[in-house]
């Protein structure tokens, strides 16, 4: 059996997206330790029942001095822990984790790119500079991995165009992080008016503005239809929607906003369809959660999102950053309500055959401990 160190991007994702993987690793007899950024550590990390240590990695800002100190801290921890294998996700954990792990003489290093996000969707000067930096860092770190996991083929191609991916020893594309079908189980469709729900942080590139603008237009024609957004607002994040704009939508009374919650299941159970007009994802967890609960999906024909939907099957695909096609898709469902049940059933079938967390984690673990990757 092996000792494994997981270098997490943040506590929330470690719990929600890696929790089942950690439990599966433990079932196989492996010892797992997590390194978690101290800026967002949550008490719920204790529920994973593994040892964890805090590290000084700030995913929001680039600061050469602080990042060098972070690398020094990572190196010391990895030297002391002396794991057989390191698994990292998130750009800084991947880059700094890979480099310091190899410096600490850990030969088996694996990374998972869970999405390219803001740096690859925004056209701002800050994002363009950050994108250049990210390209250079990936070019150095990725070839040092035994294997790099991607969550969709578009991200693999995007990184491939940067050059470093051709130097990687091995590549795998997984069906996201999978979804626990026991925790997210089918829920009957609610009675009453149709409800369209977005679950996302209040960021521009999540398509929240397009959803709100669409809701305002459709409300004039279908005043009985409900539109809801569930997610936190953090003004410190890049591309955060200004709070004044959010307040304007709230005061209009058309879109109901819910703050962040630890359990999204009641909200999904109370919606007719899930909507995610995101510009780019790795594999959107909210979509998988809704699919597992038997909900049809309206999302964008964009990297990470398009893989979850068969257009006209379990949902509808719309153009990113486009109110017109989003409005047309939602209106199609409003005027053809039988699609809600039909698409929900097809979503559930896809979740069971493609996104079952047991299938996904078995594939990941098989690659981590393959003789070829030793």
Describe this structure in words.
The mean pLDDT is 91. This protein has helices at residues 11-27, 64-81, 91-103, 117-121, 125-141, 153-160, 208-219, 243-252, 265-269, 285-292, 323-335, 338-354, 357-368, and strands at residues 3-7, 31-37, 52-55, 85-89, 108-113, 147-150, 171-173, 195-199, 226-230, 255-258, 273-276, 296-300, 315-318. The protein contains 13 helices and 13 strands. The protein starts with a strand and ends in a 6-residue tail after the last helix. The strands form two sheets. A seven-stranded parallel β-sheet has the order 3-2-1-4-5-6-7, with helices on both faces. The longest helix has 18 residues, at 64-81. Helix 2 packs across helix 3, helix 3 runs parallel beside helix 5 and helix 7 (208-219) packs across helix 11. It is globular, with a radius of gyration of 21 Å. Strand 11 (273-276), helix 10 and strand 12 (296-300) form a beta-alpha-beta unit. With 374 residues, the chain is an alpha/beta fold.
Largest sheet, spatial ordering of strands? 3-2-1-4-5-6-7
Structural class: alpha/beta
- Average per-residue pLDDT, rounded, comes to 91
SSE string, helix = H, strand = E? EHEEHEHEHHEHEEHEHEHEHEEHHH
Biggest sheet layout: 7 strands, parallel
Percent of residues in helices: 40-55%
Please state roughly what percent of the residues sit in beta strands, choosing from under 5%, 5-15%, 15-25%, 25-35%, 35-45% or over 45%.
15-25%
């Amino acid at each position: 059996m092996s000792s494994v160190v997981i270098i997490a991007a943040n506590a929330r994702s470690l719990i929600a997206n890696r929790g089942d993987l950690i439990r599966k690793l433990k079932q196989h007899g492996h010892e797992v330790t997590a390194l978690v950024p101290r800026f967002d550590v949550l008490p719920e990390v204790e529920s994973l029942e593994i040892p964890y240590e805090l590290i000084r990695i700030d995913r929001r800002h680039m600061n050469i001095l602080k990042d060098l100190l972070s690398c020094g801290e990572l190196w010391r921890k990895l030297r002391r822990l002396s794991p057989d294998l390191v698994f990292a996700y998130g750009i800084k954990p991947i880059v700094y984790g890979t480099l310091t792990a190899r410096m600490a003489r850990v030969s088996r290093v694996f990374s998972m790119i869970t999405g390219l996000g803001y740096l690859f969707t925004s056209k701002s000067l800050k994002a363009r500079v950050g994108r250049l930096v990210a390209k250079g860092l990936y070019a150095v770190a990725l070839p040092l991995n035994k294997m790099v996991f991607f969550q969709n083929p578009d991200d693999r191609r995007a990184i491939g165009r940067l050059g470093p991916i051709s130097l990687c020893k091995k590549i795998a594309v997984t069906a996201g992080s999978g979804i626990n079908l026991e925790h997210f189980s089918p829920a009957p469709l609610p009675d009453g008016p149709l409800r369209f729900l977005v679950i996302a942080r209040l960021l521009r590139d999540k398509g929240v503005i397009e959803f709100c603008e669409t809701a305002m237009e459709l409300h004039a024609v279908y005043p009985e239809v409900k539109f809801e957004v569930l997610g936190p607002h953090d003004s410190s994040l890049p591309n955060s929607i200004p709070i004044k704009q959010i307040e304007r939508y709230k005061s209009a009374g058309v879109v109901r906003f819910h703050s962040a919650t630890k359990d999204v299941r009641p909200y999904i159970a109370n919606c007719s369809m899930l909507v995610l007009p995101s510009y780019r994802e790795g594999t959107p967890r909210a979509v998988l959660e809704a699919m597992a609960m038997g909900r049809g999906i309206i999302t964008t024909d964009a990297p990470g999102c398009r893989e979850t939907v068969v257009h006209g099957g379990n949902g509808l695909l719309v153009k990113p950053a486009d109110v017109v096609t989003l409005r047309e898709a939602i209106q199609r469902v409003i005027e053809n309500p039988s699609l809600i049940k039909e698409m929900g059933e097809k979503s559930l079938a896809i979740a069971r055959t493609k996104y079952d967390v047991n299938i996904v984690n078995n594939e990941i673990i098989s690659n981590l401990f393959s003789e070829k990757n030793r």
